[in-house]
Design a protein that fits this description.
By secondary structure, the protein is α+β, with helices and mostly antiparallel strands. It contains four helices and eight strands; from the N terminus they run αββββαββαββα. The protein is elongated.
Length: 147
C-alpha cells in the first residue's frame, strides 16, 4: 500500500511566517541561505522553497532562467517577490557581485546581455566585456611582435 504524504506545498506553507511582505521559511535553510523542503517522494531529493512556491502559485520557471529575489531575502518564498531572469541579470543585480552597479567595463563598453560574458572564478561568478575579450589576442600578438 503506498504511503500517503502531505503535498509539498502544504508542508511548505505550514513553515511560512509572514515578515512584512516577505514569507519567511522557518524550515531547513541550506548553506547558501535558501529554504529547502523534501519533495515528498522517496529518492526525489529536496526542492528550493522559493522555486516550489513560484511554480505552484505563478507558473513554471522558463528553461534557462533563474528566479531573482526582488526583496533581496534568500529565505523569502513569497512567489510575488520573484522574477525569472537570465543568469547574467541575476548576477548583475546581486548585492555581493563585484561591480554590481557598474553599467560599463573599465574601457567604457556597456554591459548588455549581448556584450557580457560570465565565468566562474572559484565560488564567484564574474562578468567580462565581450568586446574587450575579443581585443585581447590582438593586443598579445602586438606585444610579441614588439619583443
Amino acid at each position: 500500500m503506498p504511503r500517503r504524504t502531505t503535498p509539498m506545498i502544504d508542508r511548505l506553507m505550514e513553515r511560512v511566517v509572514p515578515e512584512g511582505d516577505c514569507w519567511r521559511f522557518t524550515g531547513a535553510i541550506n548553506a547558501t541561505g535558501y529554504g529547502v523542503i523534501g519533495r515528498g517522494v522517496r529518492g526525489a531529493g529536496n526542492a528550493l522553497t522559493h522555486r516550489a512556491a513560484y511554480e505552484h502559485f505563478i507558473a513554471e520557471i522558463p528553461e534557462g532562467l533563474d528566479l531573482d529575489h526582488l526583496c533581496r531575502n534568500r529565505w523569502c518564498c513569497n512567489p510575488w517577490h520573484m522574477e525569472p531572469v537570465s543568469r547574467i541579470v541575476n548576477v548583475s543585480r546581486g548585492l555581493r557581485a563585484p561591480g554590481y552597479r557598474l553599467s560599463h567595463c573599465r574601457r567604457g563598453h556597456e554591459f548588455t546581455p549581448d556584450n557580457t560574458l560570465t565565468h566562474r572564478s572559484g565560488d564567484r561568478i564574474q562578468r567580462k566585456c565581450r568586446t574587450c575579450t575579443a581585443m585581447e589576442p590582438s593586443r598579445l600578438n602586438r606585444k610579441k611582435a614588439a619583443a
